[in-house]
Amino acid sequence: MTVETDALGILDRHPEAGRIRSRRMNKGVATLIVDASGLRDADRSKLERELHDAASAIEGVDEVRIAMTASQPHRTLIAVGSGKGGVGKSTVAANLAIALARSGKKVGLVDADVYGPSQPTLLGSDTKPTAEDDRLIPVEAQGLKFLSLGHLVSPGHALAWRGPMATGALAKLVDADWGDAEVLVVDLPPGTGDVQLSLIQKSRPDGAIIVSTPQDLSLIDATRAIDLFRKMNVPVLGIVENMAGYICPHCGEGSDPFGSGGAEAASKEIGVPFLGRLPLSAAVRAASDAGRPPAAGDGPEAKAFADLAATISEALERVRR
Ligand SMILES: Nc1ncnc2c1ncn2[C@@H]1O[C@H](COP(=O)(O)OP(=O)(O)OP(=O)(O)O)[C@@H](O)[C@H]1O
Question: Where does ATP bind (predicted)?
Fold first, then answer.
């Protein structure tokens, strides 16, 4: 280090000095390379400003040049779809995101359900996101960052978005300031129409999971959803069977109101992995409606979602290889 460069040592007093990867001073020009990985846009600008001011105050410095670099983590996007509504797609998306976060990943959740964005209710959060330079800053809840299409309209207003409007709104959510999130779980609207098609095109998921109930009709629709993802060259990670089997909370006897094993058999037939089964449970419904996602607790449902998250992480590793 030259004597001139030595003068920049005073920058070590900055609490984020560990991010300074290189410093050089030549003929009155101080040049810093700073690692901004994982910082939100606002914190990155603040750090740049503070280092600029600190370096400018050093005797002999006439000009300060700062290069902020960021090794942006590759953000994996998982789309959660279903052939039809009401099968528990949003419930699975929310709890899967929480289970992934509990496994140590940094997770974001995008509620792209144009027909009925329900994630604010499921996550028990009515906080509104803010924006900076026209970029949304996700809300934090249940150990996740999340944004919902519902955040973009006033409460009680119906969402009548179609094609370009829906994709434009989704782009705003996906391109938000997700900071260091490594995984984005996207809760798509149910069905296989043009809106879904353009949302998949726009968000370009790394993998998709399909939620279905065990009965035949739901599975026929699930097959359509799988075809849609395949047509778009999105790897289908597999089918999750939801509302499979019911244990009576009074007598403890098990029954299968929607049939049993249908999704597992169908997934074999279609040639996609079977990712797991979540029981129909009054506790799941009550907790979800009350904004207490079961995956955040420590009951048997939390274990079921943790297992599902582990299976999906493995499936993602396989498609990435
Ligand atoms: N495993 C389960 N056991 C009991 N209730 C469940 C289960 N999964 C979901 N539900 C309940 O079913 C209802 C529908 O769930 P959810 O909103 O997640 O479905 P969806 O497929 O996302 O529907 P849509 O896309 O039409 O909004 C909710 O009341 C939810 O609490």
Answer: 83-90
Confidence of residue 62 (pLDDT cuts 50, 70, 90): very high
Whether the CB of 191 sits within 6 Å of ligand 1: no
Do 130 and 98 share a structural domain?
A: yes
Q: Does ipTM exceed 0.90?
A: yes
Residue 252, marked binder: no
CA dist., res. 97 & res. 146, Å (int): 10
**C-alpha closest to that of 229 among 204, 248, 262, 253:** 204
Structural domain count of the chain: 2
Please give the structure tokens belonging to residue 144: 């996740």
Strand partners, 211: 240
Is there a single domain that holds both residue 12 and residue 84? no
Report whether 55 contacts 206 (CB < 8 A).
no
222-271 pLDDT, tens per residue? Answer: 888 999 999 988 999 999 999 887 777 777 777 777 667 778 888 888 88
143 and 292 fall within a common domain:
yes
Q: Is 121 in the pocket of ligand 1 (CB under 6 A)?
A: no
Domain that holds residue 9: 3-69
CATH number for the domain that contains residue 53 = 3.30.300.130
Q: Return all residues near 176 (Cβ < 8 A) that are at least 6 apart.
A: 129, 135, 136, 137, 138, 147
State how far the Cα of 111 lies from the Cα of 127, in Å rounded to an integer: 14
Task: Return phi, psi of residue 260, to 5°.
Answer: -145, 150
With 0-12 / 13-18 / 19 or more C-beta atoms within 10 angstroms meaning exposed / middle / buried, residue 52 is middle
Tens digit of pLDDT for each residue in 69-83?
A: 876 667 899 999 999
